[in-house]
Amino acid sequence: MKKLPLPESGEILVGVDGSAVSGAALRWAVDEGARSGRDVRALHAWTHDPLHGPQTSPPVSVHDARVAQRQGLEKLVHALVGSDLAATIRFEVARDTPANALVRASHSAAMLVLGSHGYGKLLQLMLGSVSSQCVREAACPVVIIPARTVPEDDGDHTEALAGTYLPGPLL
Q1: pLDDT, tens only, 125-171
Q2: Helix (H) or strand (E) holding 69
Q3: Does the structure show a pLDDT above 80 at 94?
Q4: How far is the CA of 12 from the CAs of 65, 129, 159, in angstroms?
Q5: Residue 14 half-sphere exposure toward CB, CA atoms < 13 A
Q6: Domains, the chain, ranges and CATH?
Q7: pLDDT tens digits along 24-81
Q8: Which of 6, 36, 95, 160 is close enough to 76 for a disulfide, judged by CB 3.0 to 4.6 Å?
């Protein structure tokens, strides 16, 4: 089978949602970035869910919510891969659905790396829906890390990002 060349430029884009399989995708992307000399862009997409969390909290600005999401992403990435890296990691948060944010970001990436599924409200009904949409619509090659390859004791870190969600309404 002929190996398809990657674009000359572009970074490795990886979707991070805190699940064990997205942690495995992040580590794979960082290893590939170190091997190939490419930068890695860790992207976490978030939406405000007014049905989740206490409703008595004061309103939060979109800017403050975005800052909290970015801080949570940086903390999670450093917890998963450490701080002494051979690859440069950039952090990005997007207030959008994960699939839309990743497909849009894929236009400037050399490759997109995802876990086969993460966590969402409708996990049982939409298992793998983000990776499926990205495979169909991404503008670059997509690498999928299968959940079955991730050891059970690898840990779920969704709480690390969930703790950054601000429960109040957005202004």
Answers
A1: 444 688 889 999 999 999 999 887 776 655 555 555 554 444 444 44
A2: helix 62-81
A3: yes
A4: 26, 21, 25
A5: 31
A6: 11-162 (3.40.50.620)
A7: 999 999 999 999 999 999 999 987 655 555 555 667 788 888 898 899 999 999 988 8
A8: 160
H helices within 82-164, ranges in order?
A: 98-105, 129-137, 158-162
Closest residue by Cα to residue 42 from 102, 94, 89, 96: 89
Strand, helix or coil at 39?
A: coil
* Cα(146)–Cα(163) distance, integer angstroms: 26
Q: How far apart are CA 155 and CA 19, in angstroms?
A: 8
CA atoms within 13 A on the CB side of 24: 21
Q: Which residues pair with 114 in a beta bridge?
A: 144
Helix/strand number for the chain, H first, E second: 5, 5
Separation between Cα atoms, residue 146 and residue 151, nearest integer Å: 11
Give the pTM. Answer: 0.79
Tokens of residue 158, six digits: 């969704």
